[in-house]
Design brief:
The chain is mainly α and 401 residues long. It has helices at 2-11, 26-45, 55-64, 69-97, 105-127, 132-143, 152-160, 167-198, 217-242, 272-282, 291-306, 308-311, 323-343, 349-376, 386-400, and strands at 15-17, 214-216.
Amino acid sequence: MPLPRMVYDSFIVYPVPRNLNYAYSFGGILTVMLVSQILTGVVLAMHFAPDTGLAFISVEKIMRDVNSGWLLRYLHSNGASFFFIAVYIHIGRGLYYGSFKSPRELLWVLGCMNFLLMMATAFMGYVLPWGQMSFWGATVITNFFTAIPVVGDWIQQLLLGGFSVNNPTLNRFFALHYLLPFMLTGVVALHIWALHVVGQNNPIGIDVKLPTDVVDFTPHATVKDALGIVVFLLVLAYFVFYMPNFLGHPDNYTVADPLKTPAHIVPEWYFLPFYAILRAITFSVGPIDSKLGGVLAMFAAIAVLFFAPWLDTTKVRSAVYRPLYRLFFTLFVANGLFLGWLGSRPAEGTYIVLSQLATLYYFAFFIVIMPLLGLIEKPRRLPNSITEAVLAKSNAVEKSS
C-alpha cells in the first residue's frame, strides 16, 4: 500500500550515515515541538477572546478556570522559547558541519523559510496576551515599517488595521498566529522531502561511498533521536513546572496601558540579537544614524542566511577539518550571544557602540570571512570514507583506554 510503503522507505530502512551524533537529533526535536505548539495552541484558541477588552482577562481565565489551562499555557509559552533554542542549535549545527553546502542548497533555503515563518508566528503570538510588553513591543516594531519609503505608512496601517495598535491589530495577529503554523507545517514537509532527496549530511562532511557507510534509520537513528527528544522534553518540563515565568518579561503580567510606557521595551529573548542589530543603526549617534538603515540591517541579518551556500567558497564542508573556520565560527556563536545580551540593555552610550561592533562581525562572518577562508585556509586531510573515519575514531578510543 502506498502510505505504509512511504513510511517504511522514509523512516524504517532509509539509509543514514553511521556517524551521526546527537546534534542531528534536533530535526526530530523540532518536529515534536511543532506538533506540541499546534496542539496546545488550538486548545488555547478555544478559550481565548481576541478583543482588547477581554484578551488579558481570557488568559487569566485560562490560567485559573479552564481544566489544566495553566499547564497548556505554560507548555505553549515555554514551548515557544524551547522551539527557538532547538532551531538555533539546528542552524548552528548546519553552519558548523556544512549542511548548507552543495547539493543541499534547497534544503537550507527551505530551512531559512521555516525560520522566517517561526519568527512571524512568535511575534504575533507574543502580542495576544495583551500585556504591557506585548502592546508596546507591537507598537515599536510596527512603527519601524514607517521608515520604508513611499509604502511604509501603508504597510504599517495594513498590519495595525488603523493608525495605532488596537482591536483590529489584535484580531489580525490572532488570525495570522493561528494560520502561520499550518503554513509552517507545509514548508517543514518540503524541508523533510528535500532532505530525503539529497540524503543526510554527517559530522565529517563527506559523501556516502561504501555500503558500510550507512545504517538503517530504524533503529539506529530512531533510538538516538528518541533519547534526544526525551532529554529535551525533560528540560522543558522542568521550566514548565518549576520556572514557568523565567523566560517571560514581568511587565507582560500587567494589562496593556497605552498611556504608560515601560522603562525599557524589549521583545522576547529569542529576538534580542536581531533587535540589537536594529538598534545599532537606528539609535546610533553619528552619520550612520538611520531608522531605515536599522530596519534594513535587521532584515538583512536574516536574509544573509539564505545566501550562505554561495558565500562559503571552500569545498570542504565540515569545520572538523577546517581549524580557521572553527575559530571564526566559535567567535560567531559568542558574538550572537553577546548581541542577545546587548539587545536586553538600554539603547544608549556604550551599548550602542558595542552593538555596532557585534553587528559588524555578524555580517563580516558571512560576507567577508566565509568567502576568504575558501581561498586561504588549508584544511586537514579528509578520510577516504565515513567507515574509515569511524574505525579510526574507534581505534583511538581503544588505545586511550
